[in-house]
Write a structure and sequence with these properties.
By secondary structure, the protein is mainly alpha-helical. The chain has helices at 2-5, 8-27, 49-59, 74-77, 81-105, 122-130, 132-147, 164-169, and strands at residues 41-42, 111-114, 117-120, 152-155, 181-184. The strands form 2 sheets. Strands 1-3-2 form a 3-stranded antiparallel beta sheet. A two-stranded antiparallel ribbon has the order 4-5.
């Protein structure tokens, strides 16, 4: 299904973002009984990789940023909102599941099931902290650019909000129009 939405480069980029979010969930995991943070492992999930994907997606913020309706083709955008939501839910789960399987089956076994818990090796936790700013930002900036294009606004009252001493020092007589000053949002 993801092949219908993304080309190869976009798919690799989204997998990197999904990987980053998965590792982030391992760093923030907590014991459901004591509610204390765990040390890079997830408790309370059975040994199926699909159950781990469901657990991580349930706790993951901004999971809709992984695949958004703006990524869909024009034919799919014509569907009702309910169908679009169903397609996005399946696509996000498939993306996270693909990355979890790749992490589990990697030569380093980045995540693994042992003694009733899913564990992550320390090197990927370190990778998460080193790449926290660089991995998440490009995708978020691209999504923001698609949703709200930058607009030029004009401030008609640049003296508004200044204290009297600053207004007097500016040399503008009271009641004088100062014109528009452009600035970007």
């Amino acid at each position: 299904m993801l092949a219908l939405i993304f080309d190869d480069d976009e798919y690799v980029e989204r997998r990197l973002v999904a990987r980053h979010r998965i590792i982030g969930q391992f760093t923030r995991a907590a014991d459901p009984v004591t509610r204390r943070g765990t040390d890079n492992f997830v408790v309370g999930v059975d040994n199926r990789i699909g159950a781990l994907a469901d657990y991580l997606l349930m706790r993951m913020r901004h999971r809709r940023d992984l695949v958004s309706k703006y990524d869909l083709s024009n034919d799919l955008k014509r569907l009702t909102d309910w169908w679009i939501g169903q397609i996005l839910t399946v696509a996000v789960k498939e993306l996270v599941l693909d990355e979890l399987i790749a992490m589990r089956d990697s030569p380093a076994a980045e995540i693994y099931w042992m003694d009733g818990v899913w564990q992550a090796i320390q090197s990927i936790i370190d990778e998460y902290h080193w790449t926290r700013e660089t991995v998440a930002k490009p995708h978020q900036l691209r999504v923001r650019a698609l949703r709200a294009p930058q607009t030029l606004k004009f401030d008609q009252r640049p003296e508004h909000g200044r204290v009297r001493s600053q207004r007097e020092r500016s040399g503008v007589a009271p009641g004088t129009s100062v014109g528009g000053v452009p600035y970007y949002l």
